[in-house]
Specification:
Elements lengths: L1 H25 L5 H24 L1 H5 L1 H25 L6 H25 L4
Helix pairs in contact: 1-2, 2-4, 4-5
The chain binds protoporphyrin IX containing FE (2 copies).
């Protein structure tokens, strides 16, 4: 899980900065919120998750780690694609953005429990 998070994090980084450069070049910042969250929920958070799971292998092996990984990595692409559609004017996808966002929060709750469980001693 740790290595998978690290490898996917850098993919988000590359997508995020490409959107940043594209926005700057086109002087159109419509996708700023998508760019921000690809970089923050994708690159920054996922790289931190990866480092955490590398440091605490028992967290990586727990059911919470497994659930966190899959929920985050299924919900985040859905959230980012539908958010891009929403800010571009397609309001029909609002429910998808909301659902994916709630799913990400649930995944993060599993992550938080996992961090607490793994850092109980010392
Ligand atoms: C080549 C790299 C990057 C370029 C060219 C770039 C470009 C941009 C542009 C044009 C905006 C829109 C500014 C606005 O509308 O106010 C923006 C916003 C933002 N960027 Fe980047 N960015 C880059 C990398 C990053 C990275 C690596 C992160 C985070 C780790 C990041 C985080 C953000 C955030 C959080 C915002 C939203 C700021 C706000 O709305 O106040 N960016 N970026
Ligand atoms: C499920 C998770 C999240 C949801 C649903 C969410 C939602 C939002 C919303 C609705 C905004 C206001 C956008 C606007 O300006 O119209 C926002 C802005 C922002 N969020 Fe998040 N966020 C999430 C996670 C995070 C995380 C984990 C970080 C940082 C690590 C973060 C950093 C930011 C920043 C820097 C802004 C201001 C940039 C901008 O407006 O483009 N968010 N977020």
């Amino acid at each position: 899980m740790g290595n998978k998070f690290l490898r996917l994090a850098v993919v988000y980084l590359l997508i995020g900065v490409c959107i940043g450069v594209m926005m700057a070049k086109q002087h159109d910042h419509t996708l700023a919120v998508v760019h921000a969250h690809i970089n923050l929920l994708g690159w920054a958070s996922m790289f931190l998750f990866g480092l955490f799971y590398r440091a605490f292998p028992e967290a990586e092996r727990s059911a919470f780690g497994y659930l966190h990984f899959w929920i985050h990595n299924i919900a985040l692409p859905v959230q980012m694609v539908t958010l891009a559609m929403l800010v571009s004017g397609d309001t029909s996808v609002e429910g998808w953005v909301a659902g994916a966002s709630v799913a990400i929060v649930i995944g993060l709750v599993f992550f938080a429990i996992n961090v607490w469980n793994s850092t109980r001693n010392g």
